[in-house]
Amino acid sequence: ARPLGVDGASLRPVAEAALALGDAGRHAARIFFESWFDPLEVVPASGGGFVTGYYEPEVDGAVTRSPAFPGPLHAPPADLVEIADTDDRSNLDLALTWARRHPGGGLSEHPDRAAIMAGALGPDAPAVAFVRDWIEAFFIHVQGSARIRLAGGGVRRVTFAAKSGHPYFAVARVLVERGLMTAAQATADVLRSYLEQHPEDVAAILLRNRSYIFFREAPVSDSALGPVAAAGVALTPGRSLAVDRHLHTFHLPVFVSADLGDPEPFRRLMIAQDTGSAIVGPARGDLFCGSGDDAWRRAARIRHPASFILLRPRSHPRGA
Known about the structure:
single chain, alpha+beta, CATH 2.40.240.50, 6-stranded mixed β-barrel, 6-stranded mixed sheet, 8 helices, globular
């Protein structure tokens, strides 16, 4: 079990009871959760909880590189592996989480974002799609998925497959460091606007985040659902939550409370189904807002304090 999670097997009787319940109404669903779970508030050792938003971009692109679509969304190299606890990492930076595995079994650091953007993977490195530019590709990296509207017709959905293994760095901090804005003002939409208005500054800013994301095709039959997430299921807008996977168990219900600047406070039961490089800590969450431009505008503005209540499954329903 994760430090704040549960053994996945303990969710089995709850899942079986939920399936037996069928398509219940709101009242029956509430009784179910109150009967089968115990609430546990997450209280960080220091600071408070924090929530952001993410979404699935919908962008134009192509399956082959062209002057209109030069920015690659690379597929993972064959030698890229996630570092296991049993691997000898004596010659690696302790911060690395992925690396190159050599034929003899040894590991070495994979090229980072700067090296890859400079051509370290070679001109023929496999890619699942090509998009408008490195800015477009970067924001897809941050979100971990995308719907690519192909120039020849159709849509290709891509999702996270691997990463270079370098620590994530929130590049909006560069604008804060330069005194161009405060941390509260440095939202994703403000960052993107700055990059598009200052093309001469794009490389210097993007390269501060050494982490580089690789993708795979991931078709989803229901277009109303989001991409396939780390938990192996398609995300549900407004109900799926990304958490720190080193601390929490996927599929666990989490009640999130936050003031997101709307007329009504955000109070919602969500399911932990995803993770992300920037989602670190016990009281840190990322709300999946959906796909496309409307979801982007919503997600880009979510940077708010929040509280989290984990629902720990019971072996038997309360009162049984």
